[in-house]
Design goal:
heterodimer, A: mainly beta, 5-stranded mixed sheet, 6% helix, globular, B: mainly alpha, Cytochrome Bc1 Complex, Chain D, domain 2, 2 strands, 5% strand
Chain lengths: 367, 109
C-alpha cells in the first residue's frame, strides 16, 4: 500500500477470496480496490472484514441462534431466525463503510487501523426492521437509546465488550434492519453470520455483527465504544487543526459523500483517444445528485453520466467519456449529494482518522 | 465449512424495495477455522521478548507493525491505552522496555 509500513499480505480467509490482510487476529481484511470496478455490488467473498476483539465464535448454528430483546420494554423477546423470517422483509442496497476507511492517508498520520480505501463495500441486505422488533416488544416511555451487541467477546475480561447504541428515533428508522441475507445469500461468518445490524447511511461501526442482544436503555449509553471511541469533532466535516483540543465531540454517524475512479489507478498509463472512465460515488443516504470529473487537477470540471440507481444508500456508478491527447494529467473526481454536500480539495484531519472524503486525484500519462 | 439454509424462496420485490418473504433466513451451522500463525512476528531487538509476551494476547503483532512510525510519546500513549483502557496487565518495567523497543524498531525519534 502506498504509505509507510504499508506492506500487506494477500490471503484467503474462510469463505473469502484473497484479501489484503491488515491484521490476521482479529481478522481485519481490506478489499482490493479493483473489485469496485467489477460491479456495483461487492461480492460477499470480497467484502472487507473488521473485528475489534479476537473472541470470535468460529461455529454458529443459525437454527439455535437467538436475539434477545430486553431493557426498557413491555415484553422481553427471544427471537429465532425463523421468527425473523416470518416478519415483513425489507431489502436495501447500502454501502457499509468503516469509520476509519482511508485512515492511512491522513497527514499527519494517526494510530489505529491503517486502512487504504478498501474498507468499504456495497451489498443488497435483506432483513427485518428494528422498528418492527421494537414494536413487538413495546417501548417503555423512558426508552432513550437502543443498544446492540453481538457474539464477539474480549480476549481478556477487562477489555470493554463491544456494544453500539442508536437513539430510539434513529433505531426506529425505515432503513435500520436486522439483516439475515447479504446479496441474497447467508453472509460469511466473518461478515456477521447469521444476522447483523444494517444502519443504512451510517458508518459500519454501528452494523453490529452476529447480533445477539438488543437492549433498550433508559439513558445515553456510556460504554467505551460510544463514549470514548468513535467520536468525531462536532465541527463542519468533522475536521480540526492537527493537535488542537478543546472542541466538543459527538458519536460518528452518517457517511460523508465520496467518489472514486475505479477503472484506473493513480499512476496509470493509457493510450490516447476516446476512453471511458468509470467510478463510484455514495453518501449518507440523500443520494448522489452529480459527479464531476476534472482532467486538469480540479481547475475545470465536467459532468459524468450517472448509471443505474440502486437506491439512495448504494454505490452509484458513473461513467465519463474522455478523449485524451498525449500528455500528463491529474484526474480528479467530485460528487455532490442531493442534500448539497460535496467534497473538498483539502483533506480534513481528526485524531481518530475518521471520515476522510477528500477529492481523489489520479496522475495519468496518456501516450 | 458447511452452510445451509432452508426453503429459500426467491423474493419478489416491490418497487419500493419492500417484500414479504418467508423462511428465507439461514438455518444450520456454519463453521470456519481461522488461520493461525500468519502475519509478522516482532522484529528482533532488545525488548522484543517482552513485546511478544505482553502484546500478542489480544491481537497479533501486526497491529504494531502496520502503525505509521510513531514517536516515543505516541508509543507510550499506545502502551498506556492498552493497560488503562483495554486492561492489559503489564508490569511497569516491562512497559517501559516495550515503549523503548517500539520507538527504536517501529518508531521515529
Amino acid at each position: 500500500m502506498p504509505f509507510a509500513n504499508g506492506d500487506r499480505e494477500l490471503l484467503a480467509f474462510p469463505q473469502k477470496r484473497a484479501l489484503i490482510v491488515m491484521t490476521p487476529r482479529p481478522p481485519q481484511l481490506e478489499t482490493p480496490f479493483a473489485v469496485f470496478d467489477d460491479g456495483v455490488l461487492t461480492p460477499n467473498d470480497a467484502f472487507f472484514v473488521r473485528w475489534h476483539l479476537a473472541g470470535i465464535p468460529q461455529s454458529i448454528d443459525a437454527s439455535t441462534h437467538r436475539i434477545v430483546v430486553n431493557g426498557a420494554v413491555q415484553r422481553e423477546l427471544t427471537l429465532s431466525l425463523r421468527d425473523l423470517a416470518a416478519m415483513p422483509a425489507v431489502e436495501i442496497v447500502a454501502v457499509n463503510e468503516c469509520s476509519g476507511n482511508s485512515r492511512a492517508f491522513f497527514h499527519p498520520r494517526v494510530p489505529g487501523g491503517q486502512w487504504g480505501n478498501g474498507a468499504m463495500g456495497n451489498a443488497r441486505w435483506t432483513g427485518v426492521r428494528v422498528r418492527d422488533i421494537l414494536d413487538r416488544a413495546g417501548l417503555l416511555p423512558n426508552a432513550k437509546q437502543v443498544q446492540f451487541r453481538g457474539l464477539d467477546e474480549p480476549v481478556e475480561p477487562p477489555t470493554p465488550a463491544f456494544r453500539k447504541s442508536l437513539d430510539v428515533d434513529v433505531a426506529r428508522g425505515d432503513d435500520v434492519i436486522v439483516a439475515y441475507l447479504m446479496n441474497g445469500q447467508p453472509m460469511p461468518l466473518l461478515n456477521g453470520f447469521p444476522v447483523r445490524l444494517v444502519v443504512a447511511g451510517w458508518y459500519a461501526t454501528y452494523w453490529v455483527k452476529m447480533l445477539s442482544k438488543i437492549t433498550v436503555l433508559d439513558h445515553v449509553d456510556d460504554n467505551f465504544w460510544m463514549k470514548t471511541a468513535y467520536r468525531i469533532p462536532d465541527t463542519p466535516n468533522a475536521g480540526v487543526a492537527p493537535g488542537s483540543t478543546g472542541f466538543a465531540t459527538v458519536p460518528i454517524n452518517k457517511l460523508a459523500v465520496r467518489s472514486f475512479v475505479t477503472s484506473l489507478t493513480d499512476g496509470a498509463a493509457i493510450n490516447a483517444g476516446p476512453a471511458v472512465l468509470r467510478g463510484i460515488a455514495f453518501d449518507g443516504g440523500s443520494g448522489i445528485r452529480s459527479v464531476e470529473v476534472s482532467a486538469d487537477g480540479g481547475a475545470s470540471w465536467r459532468r459524468a453520466t450517472l448509471e443505474q440507481d440502486y437506491g439512495k444508500y448504494s454505490f452509484r456508478r458513473w461513467t465519463f467519456q474522455w478523449n485524451a491527447a498525449p500528455g500528463a494529467y491529474v484526474l480528479a473526481v467530485r460528487a455532490t449529494s442531493n442534500d448539497g454536500s460535496t467534497q473538498n480539495a483539502t483533506p480534513i484531519w481528526n485524531a481518530g482518522g475518521y471520515m476522510r472524503n477528500v477529492i481523489e486525484t489520479y496522475k495519468v500519462t496518456v501516450s | 465449512m458447511r452452510s445451509s439454509w432452508l426453503f429459500f424462496v426467491p423474493l419478489a420485490f416491490a418497487a419500493a424495495g419492500i417484500a414479504f418473504a418467508e423462511n428465507s433466513a439461514p438455518q444450520g451451522t456454519t463453521t470456519i477455522a481461522l488461520p493461525t500463525g500468519v502475519g509478522p512476528t516482532f522484529k528482533p531487538g532488545p525488548g522484543a521478548k517482552a513485546a511478544g509476551k505482553y502484546c500478542t494476547t489480544c491481537h497479533s503483532s501486526a497491529y504494531v507493525a502496520i502503525q505509521p512510525p510513531l514517536n516515543a510519546t505516541q508509543w507510550a500513549a499506545e502502551v498506556t491505552k492498552m493497560r488503562k483502557v483495554y486492561g492489559a496487565s503489564i508490569p511497569d518495567d516491562a512497559a517501559a522496555t516495550i515503549v523503548q523497543y517500539l520507538t527504536t524498531e517501529y518508531g521515529k525519534p
